[in-house]
């Protein structure tokens, strides 16, 4: 099969209601595009048997590969199997290894398995059963009337595991792709997507192999480089050449590749420089500390933190002077500097960082929502404080403050 037409069908009323976003389709499309498999349609259909059957029938006419996510669970509104059976008239059987796994799950937790859980072990006769290593409902690959149907759980971590381990290798074999494909994701912080594209526009416009795909994420901006060639060595050479060209332009914003995270880089840099960090968080309420201590080995370099949300906590626990608060308020660069200086001393650290501001939705101390101050002090006398005006709702402002604080720490430590 060459240049197949593929589509993705997401089953779930919660997607139509906007209760969750259809990130599964986005992720699958990105993965398949790397291997030259083009997605022609995204379809979302609610938990209604007739409408799911209709969506399946339409897809069967127009596409060679149909990937379905969701609707494989144990409840009555999980209708994916029933809809495909009604359309195809294929037999459904109970898959014993999957049933054994489900029964073992409940046995290990000493809980009673309700009868509807048996639905999750139902598969189409003679299909390829995909072992779900992070959940219970197996995936399936079904060949029906020269079409390839792939059924996957809707839970993102389960879906991604099955795609990476089983689905992609199967599809590459199906389409007869013998090329070597290698990707590397470059991660940047402190530069927006539009500015990044502007800085390397000529490189992007002239791309052929490897391809260059910028993408904004919650943790900065990424560029995915994908090379397609006849050997791994040649693919690595192509990736390296493009990476060097890009970093020669915007390398000052680069913090890591592939699965490297900003928090991991901060922890590593603290360790290399033999410095310990203390945090005073008002606006962020512990979000930054939580991010950093999620990294293994963080206890070697993170002294601790204080969530000083209330003014009295800032005064009585952290030691911010009443005079500073009376004169400038808690949302001020003066308060932020005192917070950073005092947490440095209280916890006997090498670096102190503080966060204070207005998360909203209402203004505070005469300052609008989104007003944020981040201060950093070091044992050798370095001090800096920055003011930001973030847009968005309360959670967005706190998230952006957290990311900006980690950016400041990363830039400080890489000097």
**What is the level-2 CATH architecture name of the largest domain?**
3-Layer(aba) Sandwich
- CA radius of gyration is 26 Å
Measured by DSSP, the beta-strand proportion falls in 25-35%
| Residues in helices, as a percent range | 40-55%
Helix and strand topology:
Blueprint: E1 5-11, H1 13-16, H2 23-33, E2 38-45, H3 49-62, E3 65-69, H4 80-88, E4 92-94, H5 96-108, E5 122-124, E6 128-130, E7 139-144, E8 147-152, H6 156-174, E9 180-188, H7 193-199, H8 201-205, E10 211-217, E11 220-229, H9 232-250, E12 254-257, H10 262-272, E13 277-281, H11 287-293, E14 302-307, H12 311-316, H13 322-328, H14 333-346, E15 351-357, E16 371-378, E17 383-389, H15 394-414
Parallel strand pairs: 1-2, 1-3, 3-8, 13-14, 13-15
Antiparallel strand pairs: 4-5, 6-7, 7-8, 9-11, 9-12, 10-11, 15-16, 16-17
What does this structure look like?
The strands form 4 sheets. Strands 2-1-3-8-7-6 form a 6-stranded mixed β-sheet, with helices on both faces. A 5-stranded mixed β-sheet has the order 14-13-15-16-17, with helices on both faces. Strands 10-11-9-12 form a 4-stranded antiparallel β-sheet, covered by helices on one side. The N and C termini lie far apart (53 Å). The mean pLDDT is 92. The chain is globular, with a radius of gyration of 26 Å. It is an alpha/beta fold and 415 residues long. Helices cover 40% and strands 25% of the residues. Helix 2 runs parallel beside helix 6. Pfam families: CinA, CinA_KH, MoCF_biosynth. This is Putative competence-damage inducible protein. InterPro entries: CinA (IPR050101), CinA-like_C (IPR036653), CinA_C (IPR008136), CinA_KH (IPR041424), Competence-induced_CinA (IPR008135), MoaB/Mog-like_dom_sf (IPR036425), MoaB/Mog_dom (IPR001453). Belongs to the CinA family.
């Amino acid at each position: 099969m060459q240049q197949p037409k593929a589509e993705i069908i997401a089953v779930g009323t919660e997607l139509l209601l906007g209760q969750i976003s259809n990130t599964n389709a986005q992720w699958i499309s990105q993965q398949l595009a790397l291997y030259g498999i083009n997605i022609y349609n995204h379809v979302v259909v609610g938990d209604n048997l007739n409408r799911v059957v209709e969506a399946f029938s339409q897809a069967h006419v127009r596409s060679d590969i149909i990937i379905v996510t969701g609707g494989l669970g144990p409840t009555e509104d999980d209708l994916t199997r029933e809809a495909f059976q009604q359309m195809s008239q294929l037999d459904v059987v109970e898959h014993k290894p999957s049933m054994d796994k489900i029964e073992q799950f409940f046995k290990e937790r000493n809980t009673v398995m309700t009868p509807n859980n048996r639905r999750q072990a139902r598969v189409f006769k003679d299909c390829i059963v995909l072992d779900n290593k992070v959940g219970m409902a197996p995936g399936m690959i079904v060949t029906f009337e020269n079409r390839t149907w792939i059924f996957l759980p809707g839970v993102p971590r389960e879906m991604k595991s099955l795609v990476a381990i089983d689905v992609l290798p199967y599809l590459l074999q199906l389409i007869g792709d013998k090329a070597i494909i290698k990707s590397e994701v470059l991660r940047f912080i402190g530069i927006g997507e539009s500015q990044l594209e502007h800085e390397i526009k000529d490189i992007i416009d002239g791309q052929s192999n490897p391809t260059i795909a910028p993408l904004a994420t919650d943790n900065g901006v990424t560029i995915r480089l994908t090379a397609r060639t006849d050997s791994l060595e040649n693919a690595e050479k192509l990736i390296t050449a493009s990476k060097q060209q890009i970093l020669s332009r915007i390398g000052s914003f680069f913090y890591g590749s592939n699965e490297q995270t900003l928090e991991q880089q901060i922890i590593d840099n603290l360790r290399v420089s033999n410095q310990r960090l203390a945090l005073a968080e008002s606006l962020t309420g512990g979000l930054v500390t939580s991010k950093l201590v999620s990294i293994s080995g963080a206890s070697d370099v993170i002294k601790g933190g204080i969530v000083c949300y209330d003014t009295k906590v800032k005064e009585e626990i952290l030691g911010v002077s009443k005079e500073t608060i009376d004169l400038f308020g808690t949302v001020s660069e003066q308060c932020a500097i005192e917070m950073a200086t005092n947490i440095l001393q209280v916890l006997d650290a090498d670096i102190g960082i503080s966060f204070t501001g207005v998360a909203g939705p209402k203004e505070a101390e005469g300052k609008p929502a989104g007003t944020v101050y981040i201060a950093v002090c070091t044992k050798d006398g370095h001090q800096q404080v920055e003011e930001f005006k973030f847009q968005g709702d309360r959670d967005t402002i706190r998230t952006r403050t957290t990311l900006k604080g980690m950016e400041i720490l990363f830039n400080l430590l890489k000097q």
